[in-house]
Amino acid sequence: MKITALKTFMQRVDDRPRLLVKIETDEGISGWGEAYNHGPDWALPPLLEYMFNYLVGEDPRRVEYLVLKLNQQCRFPPGALGLAAISVIDHALWDIAGKAAGLPVYMLLGGHVRDRVKVYCGVYTAPDPEHALDQTSELHEKYGYTAFKLSPYRRDLHAGRWGELVKETGDYFGRVRALTPSHFEFAFDAHAKIFEPYQAVQLAQAIASHDPYFYEEPIRPEHIPAWRELKSKVTVPLATGESLYNRFEFLSLLSAQGADIIQPDICVVGGLSEMRRIAALAEAHYATVAPHNPMGPLATAVNIHFAAAQPNFKVLEFKPHIHAPWAIDPYIPVDGHMELRPDRPGWGIEIDEKVLATDDYIHWERKVTRKPDGSTAYP
Questions:
Q1: Tens digits of per-residue pLDDT, 31-47?
Q2: pLDDT in tens, 264-276
Q3: Strands 3-13, 16-25: parallel, antiparallel or unpaired by DSSP?
Q4: N or C: at which end does the chain have fewer Cβ atoms within 10 angstroms?
């Protein structure tokens, strides 16, 4: 079996652009992947076209060999765009390997260690407690969710006294706990907006008494010693990792005992192959893995196969999609879990290529926050 072509299709999932990639072979078996668009959305297709020169004529089932080849042809370690391209190629190759073997990808990884994959839903705001009850109850009734993620900020964290925000957050979580069923789990994503670590500690203390599922990325990821210090001072599960790129960065974080839960993104770190290395490192440090997944149906499918086969997997982020017409049969939560598809080879999801005939691009950009004094901050 030989690789003959690589095709890209610019699409979207809800209000975000997403690039789909198809790798074709001379035996009629094709594989699919969904790329993470990091910023310059149209930079990925020519980069993938360049990388295809290293793949054409190769056996797609040699996933490890080909991913190593793509990494090793780089003079310097690949950054966000390079790893996004390598990730999507890795995923398309695994899809081909599964289809060629007539097996789900998780069976090629040693088989499933769990029968279904737990998911949580990101609400991404801090709705009024009564509204939070309505939202979570609706998601529970429709999909069986019992785990959710909220924002800890009820207002602009740069406006007003920090201590007021901290108190408001603690009171808010207490009210949410009082209104919602006691078995519901609530995580809080601080979106790396806090610059001073002591403030991250104070916010953690405000929510600690109400038992958060986890406290995600309160500070920036770059300075690992700050994470060691932070974790030593908080009593809630500390999670981070969506902005880290490879096993070496995660090894630094884990060696510093900087997190309880790591959150690598399978479409950012270099694909399923690198994701498994990262997860193995976490397992050796008694840390669990809760993959970052703001992506579409295809990337979700890849995450499900990873989670099915990974012993220290904890929970998968998944928000139901409104617009992703190219996915014929996406995985949908049942009883708060994704069911495996043992009778479906590859990723177990079908792509409607007729829909892909038309580009469905939508522009999206991250808005930089302005502080009251006119300076900028992370959004």
A1: 999 999 877 889 999 99
A2: 999 999 999 999 9
A3: antiparallel
A4: C
CATH number of 107-347: 3.20.20.120
The reply to whether 3-103 and 107-347 are identical in fold is no
Exactly one of 112, 140, 285, 292 is catalytic; name it: 292
191 in active site:
yes
CA pair distance 360, 99, nearest whole angstrom: 28
State the Cα–Cα distance between residues 140 and 135, nearest whole angstrom: 9
d(CA 124, CA 58): 43
For residues 180-188, give the mean pLDDT. 98
Query: Would you list the domain boundaries of the chain?
Result: 3-103, 107-347
Catalytic: 285? no
At 95, list the tokens.
Answer: 């899809």
pLDDT in tens, 326-336: 999 999 999 99
Q: Which homologous superfamily is 3-103 in?
A: Enolase-like, N-terminal domain (3.30.390.10)
Closest CA to 119 of 320, 341, 299: 320
From 38, 191, 210, 321, active-site residue = 191
Question: What's the pLDDT at 38?
Answer: 72
Going by C-beta distance under 8 Å and a sequence separation of 6 or more, which residues neighbour residue 236?
204, 207, 208, 212, 214, 215
